[in-house]
Design a protein that fits this description.
Chain lengths: ~425, ~270
């Protein structure tokens, strides 16, 4: 078989800008480059000297698609640094806000960015001509999530009503209750869409992923939890840096995340995101949703990245139900937030939450004036970068066989499976893998 | 093909940014399908695999210019576009990433990267209008989607967009809010901040942090004096100075966040160190 090169100058239907180049010698991959040319924005540097209360507002600007994730991880890290405990009402509201982001962001990815790939269509607008009801429902589902974020957070993108310690203003129960009927509709519409998605043809690719996600014993982890992995890691978030490392590879400026099970074991790539969450946390899902997932073809042992669309869809349905549950139980807290005590010494704190695309870790050091002296932010896309590329290596024989256009599309699809959020790369990634 | 087309052609471009402003277009859940009937989305990488070459009638530009390549690319956008509309604080005022301007880029980069020398990054983050002629600037971090719809409709009909340039204070009065600056002593940038959000932060018991940048004819120095508790100039008849609400460093940070290069905010922040 002859040598060939697949080239995608601009990856589309992902957030941010990147390119792909794959060189094959027959079915043998010679070189695979996922090149991310998103300009660096230096958030970790520009946070130095800023007030700790500014961290949620500033880091939410890392990503317009999952600002709530940044706000939540930043708040969690700073609250941990000061040893403050939120009241149960604040925790519930933060989880409620996050379910809104999951519904909106997953809705966008499942129906507008990902589904067109399975149907061989360029975009959701074209899909709307073929299946208008599906797309109209999808937009309405997405809107439910946005409405939730707007009522509680003030606006959909970069919400303003969140602060370290809770919220600026607690929402009125009546304003939240108005969302209940749409949430019920959205859960139902999502489950109907799941039946449609179950009929899709999923390319056969099983990968030996090490899966990583937050885990909580009493709930499907979203806004907090311990960090678990499929081979048995189970650590507190504050131990993150002992097990997870970012490396700069030869021939590349990429910061790659690797994990170690124990300080002595070999570092390896890993995957976070909806597939990891479903596999590691399915026991915490309501039983009927777990069964529906199975009927749609999503098994609890699933390692097929193309099936992440099913995991996302189940998570939309779960988020709708969970939001409704929290709203029904909601009683406004006596105070919208817990105050931050003055610190006698410099403090350090760690926080993590499950962004729609996966684990989002923040660490801050703060001086006695409340100013940030050090910040570390590890977004899901930079953690998944290695696994995304490995998917392409494993697909290489298939890419070598298919006609050029189909092979290019398949390679793009393999990337869009992971919904990479390229702007969120607080680190500039310019990745190149060479094999001797 | 082009001879038969009737719909105006829309392109969406991204530079250094978070994607939030262009996402506002996809967040128009009620209007999106109607928009696609009115305009041909000819280039919108976040939404479609289909791209077609220019010229374009309207180019929406998100993000600031921070690399050599982007300095070149924005020229291409201008050449291909009848109208260029910038979206949001990055494109109109350099964005949060403009905090690096005037700092040592190597030091900034080396805090994040082991090999900062590999980066293609300019020492500055600059607004689009510093590079090309811009036909309309939409404010906000992020923009307001109703304002985006207003600009798109106005351009398609051929009229001037009706975007109010007064301050957030006007919106706050219209919303019937109690003034957070007067009643709670919160350092609110509302008096000098461009309308568009609907006075969101004060409506949530929070001081405005200026994410829409400066209002038309804003008077930042008067607000600074009030916030710092300084005496007013002697030739003005005003009340005696009140308590300081912020220290200088905090005032500077307030003015230097998402609209760092907006001239009015920048000038005032530089007066305070």
């Amino acid at each position: 078989m002859a040598s060939r090169t697949l080239e995608v100058d601009f990856l589309t239907r992902v957030e941010g800008e990147g390119a792909l180049r794959i060189e094959l010698d027959g079915a043998e991959p010679k070189r695979i480059e996922l090149r991310i040319f998103e300009p660096p924005r230096f958030f970790e540097s520009l946070l130095r000297g800023r007030d700790q209360h500014e961290a949620p507002d500033i880091t939410s600007r890392i990503c317009g698609i999952c600002p709530v994730a940044y706000i939540t991880s930043a708040c969690a890290a700073l609250e941990q640094a000061h040893g403050i405990q939120l009241r149960a009402e604040h925790v519930a509201l933060r989880r409620l806000l996050y379910t809104g982001e999951w519904i909106e962001s997953h809705g966008l990815h499942v129906f507008m960015l990902h589904l067109p790939d399975f149907l061989g269509l360029p975009d959701a607008m074209t899909l709307a001509k073929q299946e208008p009801t599906l797309v109209k429902n999808a937009l309405r589902i997405k809107k439910v999530g946005n409405s939730l974020v707007r009522v509680l957070g003030g606006r959909e993108i970069h919400p303003i009503n969140t602060r370290v310690g809770g919220f600026y203003k607690a929402p009125e129960a009546a304003a939240l209750a108005e969302l209940l009927s749409e949430l019920a509709w959205a859960e139902q519409a999502t489950l109907e869409a799941l039946e449609r998605l179950a009929e899709l043809e999923f390319p056969s690719l099983e990968r030996d992923y090490e899966l990583v996600a937050l885990h909580a014993p009493d709930r499907y982890a979203i806004e907090s939890g311990r960090i678990r992995s499929s081979s048995g890691l189970d650590i507190d978030v504050s131990d993150y840096t002992q097990h997870f490392h970012e490396l700069q590879r030869p021939h590349s400026t990429a910061l790659h995340s690797l994990m170690r099970l124990t300080p002595q074991s070999e570092p390896r790539e890993y995957l976070c995101g909806p597939l990891a969450r479903f596999v590691l946390n399915h026991s915490e899902l309501p039983e009927d949703l777990f069964e529906l997932a199975g009927r749609a073809g999503l098994e609890p042992t699933c390692r097929n990245p193309f099936k992440s669309i099913l995991a996302r869809t189940i998570e939309i349905a779960f988020a709708c139900r969970e939001a409704a549950r929290i709203i029904r139980a909601y009683e406004p807290p006596s105070e919208p937030s817990v105050p931050l005590p003055p610190a006698a010494d410099a403090v350090e704190g760690h926080g993590a939450s499950e962004a729609p695309r996966g684990l989002l870790y923040h660490r801050y050091r703060v001086d006695t004036d409340g100013l940030i002296t050090e910040a570390q932010i590890v977004p899901p896309t930079s953690q998944n970068q290695g696994s995304i590329e490995r998917d392409l290596w494993d697909l290489a024989p298939e890419l070598g066989r298919l006609p050029l256009e189909e092979a290019t599309l398949l390679a793009e699809r393999a990337i869009r499976n992971h919904d990479p959020c390229i702007s969120c790369a607080t680190h500039f990634l310019n990745l190149e893998i060479r094999r001797a | 093909m082009r001879a038969t087309r009737t719909r105006p052609r829309l392109a969406v471009w991204k530079f250094a940014s978070c994607d939030g402003c262009q996402l506002s277009l996809l967040d128009c859940e009620d209007e999106l399908l109607a928009i696609t009937e009115q305009v041909e989305i000819a280039y919108f990488l976040e939404a479609s695999r289909n791209t077609s070459p220019g010229p374009y009638d309207v180019s929406l530009v998100e993000g600031s210019i921070t690399t050599h390549e982007d300095e070149r690319r924005i020229q291409h956008v201008r050449e291909q576009s009848k109208w260029v509309v910038t979206l949001g604080a990055c494109a109109t005022a350099g964005g949060i990433q403009a905090l690096r301007n005037g700092r040592d880029l190597q030091e900034f980069a080396s805090l994040v990267y082991a090999h900062p020398e590999y980066l293609d990054s300019l020492a500055t983050s600059t607004p689009i209008a510093e590079h090309i002629r811009v036909d309309f600037e939409l404010r906000g971090c992020p923009i307001d989607k109703q304002q985006l719809l207003e600009v798109l409709s106005a351009l398609l009909i051929g009229r001037k967009p009706n975007i109010a340039a007064h301050s957030v204070c006007v919106e706050c009065k219209l919303a019937g809010n109690v003034c957070v600056l007067v009643s709670s002593g919160e350092p609110c940038l509302g008096p000098i901040t461009h309308a568009g959000c609907g006075a969101l932060c004060p409506s949530y018991d929070r001081a405005c942090y200026g994410c829409f940048g400066p209002a038309e004819a804003a008077n930042p120095s008067a607000l600074s004096r009030r916030l710092l508790g300084e005496a007013p100039p002697t030739d003005q008849r005003v009340d005696v100075p009140r308590d300081a609400l912020v220290k200088t460093a905090r005032l500077r940070r307030l003015l230097q966040t998402f609209n760092t290069l907006a001239p009015e905010f920048r000038k005032e922040s530089l007066r305070h160190g």
